[in-house]
Design goal:
Pfam families (chains A, B): Aminotran_1_2, GntR
Strand content of chain A: 5-15%
GO molecular function (chains A, B): transaminase activity
Oligomer: homodimer
Family (chains A, B): In the C-terminal section; belongs to the class-I pyridoxal-phosphate-dependent aminotransferase family.
Largest sheet of chain A: 8 strands, mixed
Bound molecules: pyridoxal-5'-phosphate
Helix content of chain A: 40-55%
CATH class of the largest domain in chain A: Alpha Beta
Protein name (chains A, B): PLP-dependent aminotransferase family protein
CATH superfamily of the largest domain in chain A: Type I PLP-dependent aspartate aminotransferase-like (Major domain)
Radius of gyration of chain A: 23 Å
InterPro entries (chains A, B): Aminotransferase_I/II_large, HTH_trans_reg/aminotransferase, PyrdxlP-dep_Trfase, PyrdxlP-dep_Trfase_major, Tscrpt_reg_HTH_GntR, WH-like_DNA-bd_sf, WH_DNA-bd_sf
Chain lengths: 478, 478
């Protein structure tokens, strides 16, 4: 059992509050769940009851927990619930601190995969290696001297790549960007990091989706942000709660992944998109649009980006080649107002002195060549084929026991298990049988879900993988 | 003229102290220079004299300025002045914040270079493109499928590269490292960043060399560190001041670049190395050894690393391929205790989700191949040839007007101008004539120096470049 550190300068009640916040944050106490009583918890960790009372008071003040007459303390469910202005960008250019990340199920899965044991992998959120355009990259490397003149490059990103992205963004995402409004980053991840570290300050409140991209969570936490969750349903994230979150908690930014959302695979409904931009435009709250999956769209024409209909410059747009070309290239980008790009460029120069130039050259060449369109066509076909194999396997192995929205793009299927299930135990049983997937509770507050990444396993592994999964499920629910 | 922000929450005197510290830090007031009187400064920025008195008091308390009876306030010259223990690594694993960088001369130079105008470049601190092993890289790319399976990689760095570095470190630097004690970073720069952000806390005092690597300065500043400078003379950095810095300011870390130091090109004397490790070992202060230049050693056998004689695990060792292979690959590494590597790995995963895997594969292959040794031989020859051309040109163009220590390795020559000179005007005159170099005042407190990077220009540009420089110098001193 955790114990507060009595030699620390931080007050005991603060340590306890921080500890409980972490546990809540990492899903040990989902929204609506009951916390241990003050008395009991105080006994467990050997402090006075009044210290725990004070810690809970702290959490209550920040809206994380709430007391209910006669029935203890529970984790808040955050009740969710629009004049126009451009965000005050300059005001966002202040502060940030650093803390450590954390994993749990994901670390277990990673360790299991690292053993080298043969596993069917529905967990790694990326393409299988054969889905990357390896042959095109080989050709480009042999035709062009991409490896020559490998000197320090522009910290904002290799200019020809930014030029190629101007066309890419116009053609595929309806976004009119300029070279100088694009910052190249190490995947979308580094764009998110720079935003959380440089545009927000510790203590700032932000709204994120529930569920949402796992690896953004420790990053938000490190930046000292207070997180409020907006539920995601069939039509994507619900913008209803934004106004009241703004009034109650003064949220300063909203993070969304509108197309083929990770982990649910869902697409944000057009009227909700308008509503979202409307509300945020009125309140002057920037929306961060994280858009790594759009080009996988099985039907060919991905839903438009929020940025393409953003008239108030409310949106910071983030893209990546990780989910369409190769995640290990580490090529991502942000489209943002010039002042933001300039400041974040300075920041990133301090962090890493710019991205390696070789992958940037490959990306620039690839995006400007015919290879890219051909690659996308093949990618979409293969991905929809793998999705179909997964659906077939689920229907065969678990008829009536699971439900899901059929993803029309992206890498993931979000699968509800109809009977109640402990997803940690399910993972354990799965690993015993040689299959890994991600327990849904990793991503947010909804329980009873599993994320299957159909993009990762080989086609002939999908059926056997789901049959192992079905066995694991039977071992857990019986 | 700067003015304090009266709407800020920060007290006026604190704003003023922070502002003056920045000006001092960026060289506007070199050590020993006199600050404006409290009365005059108060008038200029429209505050009460007592507020400036309070601000100066603050700076005095942190040892940055000192008052002299009857002659005002001046920037401290920092007077520099040993039982053993391993640094308490765990204690270093806390805190950090983020601020923006700054440039001045360097930004001017960069902008000038970016215009595309033909300039002879003694300013960019890197190899000319032809000195990189382009042919070897081309061969490796055509022989191996380095571009296949570009999935997310280990955030600590590509395992075969860490393995190759274990041999490299043993063979070339006498360091016994293990795969798990190596963290691959985006150049040495990211290693320094992770150290300053993650192992130190705002307000911590550290000792650095005077002069020192320019781009580390904004990074230190961002981390909120208080900097104390140890002078570098013919024998490298003087360890004498460490003890008193420790006593007076409780310095928590020391940053040194012992071999072919940037910008002076000097090598730390063997007895000073022992003394440095001795003192720091006694005090338990970690020494960060920044070692990017050693393998350029013209004589072939570089001076040993501090890390190779470090019995107390006092040294965090940082290396890079930037100065020996190519800076745009962004391959660097840190050798550190496992606990430090683990924590910094988590931190870097949050920042960028790991380095691009392609340059790491190229580096791994290159280091494990015969190409590498052959490349080093050619590199050393060419660099010493360029150094000779520079020396010849200086002797021809400016006999008796400049002095320097002859560098035995590295990329830079640190050139003293014997007559007093305003190095900013010298740069201006140089740029008019088509030559760029770095004014010495960028690096620290010594004035009247210029850094020439002989590695960067082509051999046939060196003579003409120095002749332009000589004209510029005559325009300034006459
Ligand atoms: C929604 C979302 N955003 C961002 C990322 C980060 O990806 P990268 O940094 O590789 O672009 C991921 C990766 O899984 C993701 O799913
Ligand atoms: C002394 C020193 N350290 C570190 C660096 C950073 O180099 P890199 O990040 O490219 O390895 C430099 C670059 O000039 C340097 O001179």
């Amino acid at each position: 059992m955790w114990q507060p550190d009595r030699s620390s300068k931080q007050a005991l009640y603060q340590q306890i509050a921080a500890y409980m916040e972490r546990r809540i944050f990492y899903g040990e106490f989902p929204p609506g769940s009951i916390l241990p009583s003050e008395r009991k918890f105080a006994e467990q960790i050997n402090v006075n009851r009044s210290t725990v009372v004070q810690a809970y008071e702290e959490l209550r003040a920040s809206g994380i927990i709430e007391s209910m007459v006669g029935s203890g303390t529970r984790v808040s469910k955050y009740k969710w619930g629009a004049p126009k202005q451009t965000p005050d960008w300059l005001q966002y250019l202040e502060g940030g601190t650093v803390v450590q990340p954390n994993q749990s199920f994901l670390r277990t899965i990673r360790e299991e995969l690292d053993t080298g044991r043969l596993l069917i992998d529905f967990a790694s959120g990326e393409l299988s290696p054969d889905l990357s355009p390896n042959e095109a990259i080989r050709l480009l490397l042999s035709e062009h001297s991409l490896h020559e003149d490998l000197g320090y490059d522009n910290p904002q990103g290799y200019v020809p790549l930014r030029q190629a992205l101007v066309s890419y963004l116009q053609q595929y995402r309806g976004i009119r960007a300029t070279e100088s409004s694009i910052l190249i980053t190490s995947g979308s991840h580094q764009s998110l990091y720079l935003i959380t570290q440089r545009l927000l300050s510790p203590g700032d409140a932000v709204a994120i989706e529930d569920p949402s991209y796992y690896y953004s969570l420790p990053m938000f936490h490190s930046a000292g942000l207070r997180l409020f969750r907006l539920p995601v349903d069939e039509k994507g994230v619900c913008p209803e709660g934004i106004l009241s979150l703004y009034r109650e908690h003064n949220i300063r930014m909203i993070f969304v992944n509108p197309n083929y959302h990770n982990p649910t695979g869902r697409v944000l409904d057009p009227s909700r998109r308008e509503r979202l931009l409307d509300v945020c435009g009125h309140l002057g709250i920037p929306v961060v649009e994280d858009d790594p999956f759009s080009l996988t769209s099985f039907a060919g024409n991905p839903p438009p980006s929020l940025k393409s209909i953003d008239v108030n410059s409310t949106v910071l747009y983030i893209g990546s080649l990780s989910k369409t070309v190769a995640s290990g290239l580490r090529i991502g980008w942000m489209v943002a107002p010039q002042s933001v790009v300039n400041r974040l460029t300075d920041e990133r120069q301090q962090m890493d002195f710019g991205l390696s130039v070789l992958p940037q050259r490959i990306a620039a060449q690839l995006l400007s060549s015919d290879h890219f369109d051909r690659h996308l066509q093949r990618l979409r076909q293969e991905l929809s084929h793998k999705r179909n194999l997964l659906i077939d396997a689920l229907q065969r192995e678990l008829p009536g026991e699971v439900s899901y929205t059929l993803p029309q793009g992206g890498l993931h299927l979000w699968c509800k298990i109809k009977r109640p299930v402990d997803d940690g135990r399910l993972l354990e049983e799965g690993m015993k049988r040689g299959v890994v997937f991600v327990p849904g509770s990793v991503y947010g507050s909804e329980s009873g879900y599993v994320r299957f990444t159909y993009a990762r396993p080989q086609p002939d592994e999908i059926g056997p993988g789901i049959s192992k999964f079905a066995q694991a499920l039977r071992a857990v629910v019986k």
